[in-house]
Design brief:
alpha+beta; five-stranded antiparallel sheet; 3 helices; 7 strands; 24% helix; globular
Length: 179
């Protein structure tokens, strides 16, 4: 069962095809592989500005419809994006979130995973009503920064413990406008 209205023009599919939307220019996409794209979201939470969306390139409405052969690549891109945010922003951690169906607060009918940079005591979930819609220039500046750091996705660094992670690269400071 689909929840998309008849004639739905999927904004995620548009961005996957390289076509902009009302909220995001196509250049907001900063990472692409055969199964996924990662883009700077067109809606930011003030406690966690510049969060990222990871979406499958194929149109999949929600987690229930996600093919197993796409689930692995999707989570790999989510993990790599979380590592990228710790490197690019110097954040203290990350959170991921994904919504399904109207009762689960899904409002775009294409599966997408939110990846948030997090800082100690940012109170992201307590401040979820505080949002900001960046203009395209702000979104593109963010995409440029993440694109620069995303080159590291293809060259994972290893920490002394053998795990890929932010400890192998120095902190780069907070994103402008944070909190």
């Amino acid at each position: 069962m689909t929840h998309a209205p008849e004639g739905y023009d999927c904004p995620m599919c548009r961005l996957v095809r390289g076509v902009g939307t009302r909220m995001s220019p196509p250049e907001a996409v900063f990472y692409r592989d055969d199964h996924t794209v990662a883009l700077v979201s067109g809606k930011w939470w003030k406690a966690s500005p510049g969060h990222v969306l990871v979406v499958p390139t194929a149109h999949v409405e929600n987690i229930y419809d996600l093919p197993d052969e796409v689930a692995g690549p999707l989570m790999r891109t989510v993990r790599r994006t979380a590592v990228l945010l710790t490197r690019a922003d110097g954040c203290d951690g990350t959170s991921i979130r994904q919504h399904n169906e109207p009762a689960g607060n899904q409002d775009v009918w294409h599966l997408h995973v939110h990846v948030f940079p997090r800082w100690t005591d940012d109170n992201l979930y307590e401040r979820s009503a505080e949002t900001h819609y960046p203009d395209h220039a702000e979104q593109l500046d963010r995409a440029h920064l993440l694109r620069r750091f995303s080159r590291e996705l293809a060259r994972p660094h290893r920490s002394p413990g053998g795990h890929e992670g932010p400890s192998s690269v120095g902190r780069h400071g907070r994103h402008d406008g944070q909190r």
